[in-house]
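Hi everyone,

Forwarding the result from last night's run.
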Amino acid sequence: MAMQAEAIRAALEAATWAPSVHNSQPWTFAVSGEEISVRADADRKLRVGDPEGREMLIGCGAALFNVRTVLRGKGWAPVTRILPDPDRPNLLATVRLGEVVTPDETTRLFGGEIERRRTHRAGFTNLPVPDKLIEALVRQAAAENGRLMPVGDEAAVRVLAALTQAAQAARPEDAEVRRWGRAPGSSRKDGVPADAYPSEPADTGFPQRDYAWGIEADQSTATATGVVAVMTTRRDSKEEWIATGQALQRVLLYACAFGLSAAFHTQALELPHLREFAREEVCSGEYPQMIMRLGFTFDSTHGVRRPLSEVLD
């Protein structure tokens, strides 16, 4: 029993390192015997930017992937049920310890990147991203039944950049966004640290959020856009949002292992008419769930996470 308990605790600790919109960390967990429950924390949902909870569930899906990865890395096959109880909509998944397994090389690779991965919020260096690496990321997404679509057409990139600019201009001073900006020296364990983005946004074509506290940083000198990619789904339901989060995290951890970082741009996807335009004009009718840029950077930022005691019932 001690080995199972250690594996469960390690999985929960890893879950807290998942990415989430504005680092809002919108999840809670519970343990019953050898089963972990992953739940959405509706109090942390963005009431304006994410009224349906789409981004919240994507973040929780990423946390679920970390749970599964670490359990397998500890030698236990994770047995997962998605949305197991219709009467408990915030219960997104349960994961119990299954049969004993030998972790493979990919699982060990992912496990080693969970606490190293960081969200980037500036430009990238001019180092080219190898085509083979992008192709590998597409395969990683597919392994979780997700679709990562690199946007190679320059006109399509300009459309996505323009949509992002329009969304940012529509909400130039977003109080909900600034709520999650951490002032310099803040002891908060959630939100976006002031040193996680430059005070003067890099001219990448894709504006970053205005968290109001950006500080002078070397990362502002890197201005390359990087590779633009979109994660899409055929349908647009809670199941697809959770699946997107799992596929996204698998992509991010694989990318991190090869020195590749990701910057997220969800502004346009938070405005229904702009998201619909992207779906029809760029995504071939599929639903865009995440717009991101991928590239190399030499910047390093520290991560902040709430302690497990705050998210574990």
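The radius of gyration is 19 Å.

Cheers,
N.
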